């Protein structure tokens, strides 16, 4: 790999590991000290490596420098003696003996502790995602701002406010106990899925090449965090495996769902040879692993739906399964999108006429998707009505991608 | 919005009460679609559970009778709670119950809001 490509990659993966370990060591009160030390380390690396070239083992170099900087910091600062020392977990007799443990095991433990700290309901889900990108994924403020289509100041404020709140609430950075895992795993999974969705569904006004790379990155980060939970025995629960399966199935269509100009290609029109079979197999593998125990989470149901969508061929079996999974999903948790998709599946299994009757009971007049669905259902039954619905959808849609999709439907109806 | 209890009463003693696996299969889909349709309107408060047909009936003087309550023809076959504006709307939803065609009856009761 070229040096130019290697350095940012090393920085991102190692930044998040060292930050996690130091935050875990220092506690939430001193999270900025941890970040400063790591930033200093990377600054030193940038300066030195640009003159002397890459060291033989960049990771080991970074770990050594980070350890030394931490020890120096602790020695230098007398405040450590009174304040910080009380918080440090592995405190030994003397400052010099403090072990800064950058072993794989401690990195994994620290990252798990940090996931549970960041995904804390004390802060808003929006802030959780931003903080996760910053502390758990090693994204810079600018990159996060790009991901959220906003500016650096907004993200900077959002992240700082989130950190303040975590401090005020005195959230500990520690290994979650069994009962904490049971109580809080759901909100951790919600944040991971939000992060994934941000990458998968956001249709931005960024330059397309940058857009695609960034969105893929977000999806990969969400999968990586989820996989950290799978690798840890205490968090390796069926719902975690189901979420990983769900994200794998979705990402299998990543390359097929937009054309070179960044326009959305509808599911029916996708070239399925572009669907990533490896990811589909990976998803199937983890969905099987998820099928233990007797709790069916929404991720199980959504992964099941996503699995059937990886079968391109229309069959009554496919749509009957999708319909029943949507029925179960709605019984578990209502959402407008699930209600619309359920009605689409109903049209496939029970016919358009029955689906129209059901659709008109949904009362989702604010959603352009609702009118697109009605337009779709009326197509071939009453094309005049279909056109009216598509036009209402067009008026309600905001994003250019949605408008383009609806216009395509209208064109198809008129020709 | 008010909450309504829908109680499905069925004759558990007749021959029809013990459907074949094929009949069961044929009956489950319309039932699941009915419930899914209520949920899709965000009007499902509590989904039905599956109850066995074994049952006990407790009477005065600690008398316990085996079997579901069967002095009237219909025992409880299932229960769910829905959200609806009024009885008209709740009854409209209840009319969709596919077991009606097998002779079941659906009792509709509105929850009384305690002040």
UniProtKB/TrEMBL annotation, chain A:
Which parts of the sequence belong to the RNA polymerase sigma-70 region domain? 12-78
Instruction: Read off the Pfam families from this record.
Output: DUF6596, Sigma70_r2
| Molecular-function GO term, any one | DNA-binding transcription factor activity
The UniProt entry's GO biological process terms, in alphabetical order, are: DNA-templated transcription initiation
Annotated DUF6596 domain residues:
184-290
The record, for InterPro entries, names: DUF6596, RNA_pol_sigma70_r2, RNA_pol_sigma_r2, RNA_pol_sigma_r3/r4-like
The UniProt entry, under PANTHER family, shows: BLL6612 PROTEIN (PTHR47756:SF2), BLL6612 PROTEIN-RELATED (PTHR47756)
Q: What is this protein called?
A: RNA polymerase subunit sigma
Source organism of this protein record: Dyadobacter frigoris
UniProtKB/TrEMBL annotation, chain B:
Which superkingdom?
Bacteria
Protein's organism: Dyadobacter frigoris
Q: What is this protein called?
A: Transcription initiation protein
Into which family does the record put it? Answer: Belongs to the YciI family.
Domain spans labelled YCII-related: 47-107
- InterPro entries per record: Dimeric_a/b-barrel, YCII
